[in-house]
Amino acid sequence: MADLPEIIPLFPLPNFVLFPGVQAPLHIFEPRYREMVADVAQSHGLIGMIMLKGDWERDYYANPDVYEIGCAGRITTLARLPDGRYNLILDGVSEFRVVREVREKAYRTARVQWCPTAPIDLDGATMRSLRELLIRFLGPPAHDLWRSLVEQRGLMGADLINFICFHLDVAPIEKQTLLAALGERAGCLLDILTFQVEERKLGPGGATGSSGPLQ
Fold first, then answer.
1. What CA dihedral angle connects 160, 163, 166 and 169, to 10 degrees?
2. Contact status, residue 66 vs residue 52, Cβ threshold 8 Å
3. Per-residue pLDDT for 83 more than 90?
């Protein structure tokens, strides 16, 4: 993608996965990431969200390992608080692959390869399967959710898949798997939902059919 920079800042978090087309609020309080926000706010406005992996707590203030695939977001709303912290909203822009890290700042930066997914065309059968799995996963609230997303807001294709992936109440590693699936994300989402539904039949409380909503 010619309009996106080759080097971007990385903001690694332990339990957060961003997806293209979704908005996420962030609160920035660490000094190195305050510096990051101040820098990017005066340039391209992009922050590469990426998930920490392994035993990251032991090495958090250095450079703990991160996953290879992340998603960059562009700052669309920014408020600097009196004590120097920031509240901001990121709009997910595109997936990226870390090529190598560049150690030039107090915060982490990396040379990246942009890997946006192609448009997703969900056929009727896939939409029916997705709706049915959401109903089995979420219970009755899924009917109103589907109506709101598809019929009222008109979400379809990648926008619908990414919204569900971001808000779905599953483990962060499963969201990372969905992000890394790239062009296979719709199929991966169906697989994860199917697994979750089947797992509940076997585990404690699986017979109740109850579930939390999207996050």
1. -80
2. yes
3. yes
Q: What b/e string do you get for 16-54 counting C-beta neighbours within 10 Å, with b at 16 or more?
A: bbbbbbbebebebeeeebbebbeebeeebbbbbbbbbee
The reply to whether CATH 2.30.130.40 applies to domain 7-114 is: yes
Give the domain ranges of the chain. Answer: 7-114, 124-202
- Which pLDDT value is given to residue 64? 86
Tens digit of pLDDT for each residue in 105-122?
Answer: 999 999 999 998 888 889
Contacts of 26 (CB under 8 A, 6+ apart): 11, 86, 87, 88, 89, 90
d(CA 39, CA 62): 20
For 69, the token pair is 């695939």
